[in-house]
Amino acid sequence: MVTAPPQRAMPPYPMSPDDATPALVATRVWDLPTRLFHWLLAACVLGLVITGNVGGNALEWHMRFGVSVGALLVFRLVWGVLGGRWSRFTSFLYSPAALARYLRGRPLPQDHFDIGHNPLGSFSVFALLGVLLLQVSTGLMADDEIATTGPLNRFVSSATASLATGWHKGYGPWLIYALVALHLAAITYYVRWKKQMLLRPMWHGDKLLPAGSPASTDHRVARVVAGLLALACAASAVWIYRLG
User: Fold this and answer.
1) What angle, 0 to 180 degrees and rounded to 10, lies between the N-to-C axes of helices 220-243 and 32-54?
2) What tens digit of pLDDT does each residue of 114-164 get?
3) Angle at which helices 32-54 and 171-192 pack, to 10 degrees?
4) Which sequence spans correspond to the domains of the chain?
5) Do residues 102 and 113 make contact, with C-beta atoms less than 8 angstroms apart?
6) 180/198 Cα distance (integer angstroms)
């Protein structure tokens, strides 16, 4: 049976005078597929925003970025079931009671709010994934009646296409801007006021945690499975793009 990678000992933070502070070790939290998804999604969303606002011939690239985001989202939905412990949706799908414990600052030992996504962060993640999925879906069906038509437009009614276009060009972008701004504001808050670098673990995968904290699996077999899944998602995106 394949097990999680061993935790690598790191120099602990300074001990308190009574030696009560536990040693911290580098623990794998974000597996490589999740990290690649995160940074590729950020790059593609930035490309979507730029090309969508430039317009004209850039809309062809806007469509390419759109289907790429769609492929990444499908990958993440599947990887949310197959991925490492802290990449699985079940690890940050919190109950109202857990949210209340987090807000009161009284977590249970098994809550592990300090490892993966905390309850407020999880809401942000689910909201962003859902809004991006809706934005990509409406873009595939949209028709600006000028130069750009989504590759799935011919498979839906004109009424559906009109609704999709209205959302895609109206409320959709502004909702994405708001969620991205909220995401960046939360990162800034944690860096400046809580002295926690949230982006660093998303870059190299590890986080300094008390010894014995549960880690995510990030072995070669899991990465091969993720690679095959990514290829399938990319092939599906290319096929949909060519329908247009």
Assistant:
1) 20
2) 899 999 899 999 999 999 999 999 999 999 877 789 999 999 999 999 999
3) 130
4) 25-94+117-208+216-243
5) yes
6) 15
Tell me the one-letter amino acid at 187.
I
**pLDDT tens-digit readout, 50-93:** 999 998 889 999 999 999 999 999 999 999 999 999 999 999 99
Please state, in angstroms and as integers, the Cα–Cα distance from residue 12 to each residue in 8, 22, 25, following that order. 12, 8, 7
Q: Any idea which fold 25-94+117-208+216-243 has?
A: Fumarate Reductase Cytochrome B subunit (1.20.950)
The tens digit of pLDDT for each residue in 16-28 reads 444 556 689 999 9
Which position has the token pair 């993440």?
A: 76
The answer to whether 107 and 101 have CB atoms below 8 angstroms apart is yes
**What is the identity of the amino acid at 182?**
L
